[in-house]
């Protein structure tokens, strides 16, 4: 579904992503893990068109997308649940969700998509008229995911969805990602919570200082001695 081939990305003069290659098959949950500052968010921003690679290619469903603008990429079927949620705090839950359905193909399915989101997150239906900025952190993350689902995505990008959440809510968010995937939506997850991410993922890539150093099945990487030592504190 998604094929990233030898991309290089710069922030000004800083070479942030270095010759990165990976792929995501339809129906998979794939995760990119690594420490803070490794370049994980940069990769997602490059996929969604906020940044463009200086070299290399990005193909989605067999078509090149690395020169497209973000709204064109959403129309192609890629939605991005961004780090920090990026909600409109003075707009209601419903208004934030409706904004997620601005692309033409999603407008005709607003009712069905709202039903899908409210089945996943019943609390959002209870707070439908509440301002997004007055929700709890966990509820805001649910709303950010719901907004991403409103565009009828084929591929959903998640950027640090567990960041800043209490442990009980972290488990709920990961269970939600699994449920979304079971509904037929392919997932690319970027996450610092390495244990949960690797346990969930079909396949995983380890990014360090802008380069992929390890890849494999998620659960297999959990047993990798380097991962245990460097990231899980198990020596």
Question: What series of H and E elements makes up the topology?
Answer: EEEHEEHEHHHHHEHEHEEHH
What is the number of E strands?
10
Low-confidence segments, ≥5 residues, pLDDT <50?
none
Portion of residues in helices? 25-40%
- The secondary structure category is alpha/beta
Number of DSSP helical runs: 11
Order of the strands making up the biggest sheet: 6-7-8-3-9-10
Mean pLDDT: 91
| Alpha-carbon distance between the two ends | 37 Å
User: Sheet with the most strands?
Assistant: 6 strands, mixed
Rounded to the nearest angstrom, the radius of gyration is 17 Å
The shape is globular
Strand content: 25-35%
Secondary-structure blueprint:
Elements: E1 2-11, E2 14-24, E3 29-33, H1 40-47, E4 55-60, E5 63-64, H2 70-76, E6 78-81, H3 93-99, H4 104-107, H5 110-120, H6 122-126, H7 137-149, E7 155-159, H8 167-182, E8 186-191, H9 194-200, E9 203-208, E10 211-217, H10 218-222, H11 225-230
Parallel strand pairs: 3-8, 3-9, 6-7, 7-8
Antiparallel strand pairs: 1-2, 1-4, 4-5, 9-10
Helix pairs in contact: 3-7
Characteristics of this structure?
6-stranded mixed beta sheet, 38% helix, 4-stranded antiparallel beta sheet, 235 residues, alpha/beta
Please tell me about this protein's structure.
It is a single chain. The chain is of the alpha/beta class and 235 residues long. The protein is built from eleven helices and ten strands. The strands form two sheets. The chain has a six-stranded mixed sheet, sandwiched between helices. The chain has a four-stranded antiparallel sheet with strand order 2-1-4-5, covered by helices on one side. Helix 3 packs parallel to helix 7 (137-149). The longest helix is centred in the C-terminal third of the chain and has 16 residues, at 167-182. It is globular and about 45 Å long. The mean pLDDT is 91.
């Amino acid at each position: 579904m998604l094929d990233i081939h030898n991309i290089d990305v710069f922030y000004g003069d800083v070479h942030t992503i270095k010759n990165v290659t990976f792929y995501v098959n339809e129906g998979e949950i794939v995760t990119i893990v690594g420490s803070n500052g490794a370049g994980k968010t940069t990769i997602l921003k490059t996929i969604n068109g906020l940044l463009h690679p200086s070299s290399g290619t990005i193909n989605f469903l067999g078509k090149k997308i690395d020169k497209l603008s973000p709204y064109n990429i959403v129309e192609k079927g890629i939605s991005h649940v961004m780090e920090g949620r990026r909600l409109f705090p003075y707009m209601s839950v419903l208004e934030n969700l409706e904004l997620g359905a601005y692309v033409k193909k999603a407008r005709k399915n607003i009712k069905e998509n709202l039903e899908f989101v409210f089945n996943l997150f019943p609390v959002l239906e209870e707070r439908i008229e509440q301002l997004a900025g007055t929700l709890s952190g966990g509820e805001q993350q649910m709303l950010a995911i719901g907004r991403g689902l409103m565009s009828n995505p084929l591929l959903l990008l998640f950027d640090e969805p567990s960041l800043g959440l209490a442990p009980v809510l972290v488990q709920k968010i990961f269970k939600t990602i699994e449920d979304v995937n079971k509904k037929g939506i392919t997932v690319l997850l970027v996450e610092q919570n390495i244990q949960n991410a690797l346990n969930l993922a079909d396949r995983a890539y380890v990014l360090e200082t802008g380069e992929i150093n390890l890849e494999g099945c998620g659960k297999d990487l959990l047993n990798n001695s380097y991962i245990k030592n460097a990231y899980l504190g198990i020596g």
